[in-house]
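Bug #77: duplicate submission created two jobs. Keeping one. Sequence:
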Amino acid sequence: MNTNKDRSFLNAILMLLVAIISVQSSGSLAKVLFQSHEVLVVATMRLMLGATILAFIGRIWQINFKKVQWKTIIVYGLALAGMNGLFYLSLQRLPLGIAVSFEFIGPLTVALCHAKQRIDLIWVGLAIVGMAMLFPFEEASSSLDFVGIFYALGAGACWAGYILSGQKSSGVSGNHTVALGMFIGTLVLIPFAIQTGQFLNAFEPTSLMYFGALAVLASALPFALEIIVLKRLPPLVFGTLTSLDPVVAAISGVFFLQEHLLWSQWLALATIIVASIGCTYSTHRAKLKIEAKLKQQKHSL
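Kept job's structure:
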């Protein structure tokens, strides 16, 4: 029995890692699109095409809409819209490292609020230290754009809402939840995309091809995997494991963009990895101990 639970837990972690790698690998593609399209147009197309892909794969027309928990879906969709739109807006005003550092306050806050053991606080604390070490203080010495900081913090708050709402029952399957949520997120962002006056340019054949690839890598695949993961991992583990995002981004930068890291940044990445592994292991061990204790009490009755 424990073997099956261990396997399910491990599978959830592997799916989350695939989701993280998928999102980070889409970063270079998004940068290409930023050169020819407005940021909010990119964010809108990413959600809209991702939702369309998942809708066809999951045959969304077969949903029993009477069973849909629309409150959960709407909150989830609003969180998706904020995560995408606000973070992309922050990148217009802040260096990437600083924007990511502010955004990660969201998931780390969720992890901290769900820490129940003393050792949990140690792992979350290590993740925070690692994130602080990644923060480019030399760039921060110049005046920071407070609007950009506001956008990044807002994206982090939406990320926290995404984690919490994704764990609630929506009345439909995971893929259907993501598709409906992404459609709602699209409805939120599309007026802003239209206001740029460049929204229709995104539907040119060449642009659609790039946006389709971005939708799969940055939205459809990772969000579909994460909605499954959110049902299997506690918020503490999910929130801490997401700190691996900047690790994957930094390593991708070394291999694909020839970006070199300082020794202190490599130490920061190692710190985050240790925190993520430690949090995952200790939380799962504690869960198994509680289940074993409950099982023993049941047999003694």
